[in-house]
Write a structure and sequence with these properties.
6-stranded mixed sheet, 13 helices, Rossmann fold, homodimer, alpha/beta, DNA-binding, 6-stranded parallel sheet, 44% helix, 434 Repressor (Amino-terminal Domain), elongated
Chain lengths: 331, 331
Amino acid sequence: MASIREVAALANVSPSTVSRVMNGTANVDPEKRERVLKAIEESGFTPNEVARSLFKKSSKTLGMIIPSIKNPFFTELSSAIERTANQYGYRMILSNTGGNLEKEKNAISMLVSMNVDGIVLATSNAGLRSYLDNCKTPIVTIDRLISKNASGGYIHCDHYEGGRLAAEHLIDCGCKSIVCVRGLDGISSAKERFAGYLDVCKENGIKEQSIICDYDFNEGLAMTEDLLKQYPDVDGIIACNDMVAISIYKVLHRKKIRVPEEIQIIGYDNINLSRLMTPEFTTVAQPIEKMGVKAARLLIKKESNRQQEYIFSPELIIRETTKLQKGADAQ
Amino acid sequence: MASIREVAALANVSPSTVSRVMNGTANVDPEKRERVLKAIEESGFTPNEVARSLFKKSSKTLGMIIPSIKNPFFTELSSAIERTANQYGYRMILSNTGGNLEKEKNAISMLVSMNVDGIVLATSNAGLRSYLDNCKTPIVTIDRLISKNASGGYIHCDHYEGGRLAAEHLIDCGCKSIVCVRGLDGISSAKERFAGYLDVCKENGIKEQSIICDYDFNEGLAMTEDLLKQYPDVDGIIACNDMVAISIYKVLHRKKIRVPEEIQIIGYDNINLSRLMTPEFTTVAQPIEKMGVKAARLLIKKESNRQQEYIFSPELIIRETTKLQKGADAQ
DNA sequence: AAACATCTTGAAACGGGTTTCAAAAGAAAA
DNA sequence: TTTTCTTTTGAAACCCGTTTCAAGATGTTT
């Protein structure tokens, strides 16, 4: 509320002196310093961070933009980024866009205006590309690719390999009729995972079967009904993420179809919940924690980012929704 | 990137004219308007939202502060608020604090600096009280009470009644040894729910048994082990929220204790997940949606806030983790 | 005492939109 | 043609913290 000029008047010094006391940027006469401190105390003055960042070009803040706050993959990712940012004295603010292009542009422009020191974008709207290429604020895209020119780099987990891992595992588990539940078409990660699945199918001479589903459990519920109608002999399902895997299980359970005896399910992401479910879900893990840390460190310049692309490896986590034919284990 | 003065120079007009063209605040000669529009186009100018809000006192933005982004209660709440804000042309930004006092102060001061039009605070740090009382930006506290003076009002669900509902239901279900898993001591909502439980115990002459647990499933996992040691004859558990209920179930299932046959569980909040689980969880529902809409509307001044306190009613949702002795049903 | 070095301090400019105010230009009325 | 009213326009002030720059004050050296 109170401004630096009011504090200055109260302490009978100039605004510059108040600023110097607050920031310790220069010596101030001890007696005046006392007066200033007292005036700050009395007026309950807190500096306006925005006016401050308007001049300096940093706000010690990272911005994060996610498509869905209800998807634990993104909340776990943002937690990792925030924790890392905090370690370096930065804060993080979050903006949820639901994948809406206008909201995304809007969020970016607000974040840039705030002089955030970097933005991590976990969103995949192709319409953002030109926006990104012209943005002076470093942006790292994570999980999904929009533009290779994004100033801050592109962090992702090898989705193609993840798709392969899932498909190979179901084959190892004896599945003969595997259905791949693909993410929406516009999402680069979904495309790559599907490509991995496709190649494994070809190599093993199995039929390619797929169905599209948004990353949301309500969508998952409805989609599963369709899936069962369309592929009545299905015995293995690759879900596009763990939330959808959970909703697939829900529908199967309601229909008294046993998992993994009749149909096996493998999820994707390895969110905390996948381990908390009963049964525990087999899934392809993304190193969420590591990816988040990397993103934060890149933006805070704790790591050189000469490199443009950072690829992490997925890992198969075998739990209770699939059943290996013989031998082997993981986790 | 480009500033309004650069655009002005390009179009050969004054900055004021550019501002007028952008905002339609006054008539501008059609020919000059064209020049300005063209200059904006060419320079890729986007107005600096912060500089703008530094002058105007509004930024068409709501801020939200939550203690844990991993707790679906808060993400569902923030989704409701955001959706409502968007309907009125406002955006929302989110700040996650982990309940840390310093981070909360920090978040508030940043939000205030940004000239957000209102803050919704779902956090419960008593140390924030004086902060809130002096804050010129309207703040509504939701779910948890900090100060009755909070400018924007206090929205909550009747926690005492919720505690009663849960306890009475377990009694109706025939439980003889009920353990109440209480939230942390500093949290007002947790205290009130516990008070409700306590009164029901007294009225029915049952033993009061409780254990403290943070709102987090990892805590829940560890706490459940203690609970079983401390109260080996427990046959009914009131969880402090749905996430904890899920982790309690997890531990019981691992130990081959059947739910609800041997131990019945009731959660709290009615997050989406509670319905997605197998078995589906009995819970005390908070009207998350309604509370969020209310908070947003209050701050956006779509509703007068002469009133200071808005109390919603909890609702018992009976599902599969409890078993009524005779008759009745819901949802 | 004069000359020089050092420290402390406030005025002013800055960053980027917005708005007020008064001047200039144009149009209508006398 | 002159007066009056209306419209358009830019200069300048504003929001608020920071920083530069130069002046003032103090202290040190010869």
